[in-house]
Amino acid sequence: MGSLGTLHVLTLAAAGFCLAALTFLIGRTYAFGRRDYLSAPRGYAGRGLVYAFGKGMVDKESVSRHKPTMLGGVVYHLSIFAALAYVLWIALPIRLSPPPGVFRPVFLVGAAVGLTLLAKRALKPHLRRLSCPDDFFANLFVDLFLVLSLLHTFRPALEAALMVVSILLFIYIPLGKIRHCFFFFYTRLVFGLHFGRRGALPGSGLKV
């Protein structure tokens, strides 16, 4: 196995570590024990889940008052997931190469949006006061990852550099602020199921 093959194995191992660590963190949220519901449901948990991942995503004041930023954040995160999939595709022992032309515009737009969000965080005083060093580091780290992924679609010789950054990123995800990309879905799931069962979310209540 050559050095590039070793990097592929290490990338997959780092991805496995990332998934295991995130799963462990979820398990820790149940350290307080499981809560048994003593009252009858007043709504449908499934409908609460639909609301949480649907209309509830845009009903929040933080989203409704900042729609351009919200849209940019969605594009940014989708591009990150696409870059992670791209890297895993390369690292897996399959012969079919990912089509660069499909990923290039995604990585380009994602990197541009990420740098724009970083500039906004740095230049707006109220956002800067709310930010910690890890906010800036995480943004820069992911932007570097997106830029390297983009450059790799033009120059495959950069694969070793991309793999090294990917390994570091997978290790960092469960340790730093980037893990919110994973916990966002988990918290929306818990929110929708819990408050949907209580009938507290629009459209989730039982019909009388």
Over the alpha carbons, how many angstroms does the gyration radius reach? 20 Å
Would you report the number of β strands?
0
What is the CA–CA distance across the termini? 67 Å
How many structural domains does the protein architecture include?
1
Largest sheet: none
Oligomer: single chain
Which structural category do the helix and sheet elements fall into? mainly alpha
The best one-word shape is globular
- Which regions have little confidence, pLDDT < 50, spanning 5+ residues? none
SSE arrangement, N to C: HHHHHHHHHH
Q: What share of residues is helical?
A: over 70%
Question: Overall mean pLDDT score?
Answer: 85
Number of helices: 10
Portion in strands? under 5%
In short:
The chain has one domain. It is built from ten helices and no strands.
Walkthrough of the structure:
The protein is mostly helical. The protein has one domain. The chain is 73% helix and 0% strand. The protein is built from 10 helices and no strands. The chain has helices at residues 3-28, 45-52, 56-59, 61-64, 67-91, 100-123, 125-130, 133-154, 159-172, 180-197. α5 crosses α8 and α6 packs antiparallel against α8 (133-154). It is globular. 24% of the residues are buried. The mean pLDDT is 85.
